[in-house]
Amino acid sequence: MVEVAIVGTGGIAAFHAEALAAQGGRARIIAATDVDAARLAAYESKWSVPAVYPSLDELLAHEKPDLATLCTPPGLHASQAVACLSRGISVLCEKPPVLSLAELDAIANAAATSGAFFATVFQHRFGSGAVRLRRLMGDERLGRPLVAVCHTLWFRADEYFAVPWRGNWDVEGGGPTMGHGIHQFDLLLSVLGEWREVVAVAARQAKPTNTEDLSCAIVTFADGTIATVVNSVVSPRERSYLRFDFEHATVELDHVYGYSDKNWRVTAAPGHESSVASAWADGPPDRQSGHKAQFDAVLSALESGTEPPVSLSDTRRTVELIAAIYASAFTGRRIRRGELDQNSPFYHRMPGPGAPWN
Question: Is the confidence at residue 65, as pLDDT, over 90?
Answer without folding.
Answer: yes
